[in-house]
Recover the amino acids of this structure.
């Protein structure tokens, strides 16, 4: 299984770079992944989404899709695309140490 | 690794639910992957962006072999409404939004929406007849210019 090093710790990832072992995730690692994804600094708005996704994933076993995130009333579609440019749910899931969200909506 | 798709321009030409949804799903899905997306509505596909009609998009029960229903049965009064309400229920369970909300969501996700000038002229429509998410009424030439460098999908 491939590994990547973030903030000095090696973590297990899949072929697309999504972490496969949630227990290895820390906020510092999340910040390092975010920088790699082109987000220089995570704001409270980012963390709100990341924490929501982690909670959802824990409850359902799956990373939530864009629709799930926006429907929760946490954030508008526009804002979500603004703060995670280039594929919001995918990018946020990667930073949150979750698998890639599955879903077409 | 293969080169990634960077831009798609999707033409929606039909006004039934089964004609409109695939284009919306593909365009919004493109944005979810960080792909630039244009939606171009032509002919009866414009029903999806017309204020008066976008909330009344129905499943085609006549001339639709996929319904597995004899044409005469499909033509019975109420049949299309019935099939539509069945499909709407399934869509709700799957968390697929109704057409007007889908249009809003796709627009908020950064899709660009356009109406076809030839169709607008043919049906004697005006910009005000369209929902506010529609950016402009454009010619086929404008469409090709906007689609340049990307893939074009006709639905």
């Amino acid at each position: 299984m491939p590994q990547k090093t973030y903030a000095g710790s090696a973590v297990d990832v899949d072929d697309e770079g999504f972490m496969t072992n949630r227990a290895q995730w820390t906020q510092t690692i999340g910040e390092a992944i975010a920088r790699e994804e082109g987000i220089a600094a995570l704001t409270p708005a980012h963390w709100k989404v990341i924490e929501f996704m982690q909670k959802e994933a824990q409850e359902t076993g799956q990373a939530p899709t864009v629709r799930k995130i926006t429907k929760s009333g946490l954030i508008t579609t526009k804002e979500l695309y603004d703060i995670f440019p280039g594929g919001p749910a995918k990018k946020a899931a990667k930073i949150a140490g979750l698998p890639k969200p599955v879903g077409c909506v | 690794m293969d080169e990634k798709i960077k831009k798609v321009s999707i033409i929606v030409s039909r006004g039934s639910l089964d004609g409109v949804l695939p284009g919306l799903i593909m365009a919004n899905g493109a944005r979810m992957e960080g792909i630039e997306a244009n939606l171009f509505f032509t002919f009866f596909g414009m029903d999806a962006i017309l204020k008066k009609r976008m909330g009344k998009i129905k499943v085609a029960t006549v001339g639709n072999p996929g319904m597995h229903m004899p044409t005469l049965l499909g033509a019975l009064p109420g049949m299309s409404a019935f099939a539509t309400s069945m499909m709407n229920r399934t869509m709700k369970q799957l968390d697929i939004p109704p057409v007007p909300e889908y249009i809003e969501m796709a627009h908020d996700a950064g899709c660009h929406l356009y109406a076809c000038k030839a169709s607008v002229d043919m049906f004697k429509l005006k910009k005000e007849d369209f929902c506010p998410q529609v950016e402009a009424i454009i010619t086929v030439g404008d469409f090709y210019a906007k689609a340049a460098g990307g893939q074009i999908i006709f639905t």
User: Anything to note?
Assistant: The CA atoms of residues 2 and 141 of chain B lie 30 Å apart.
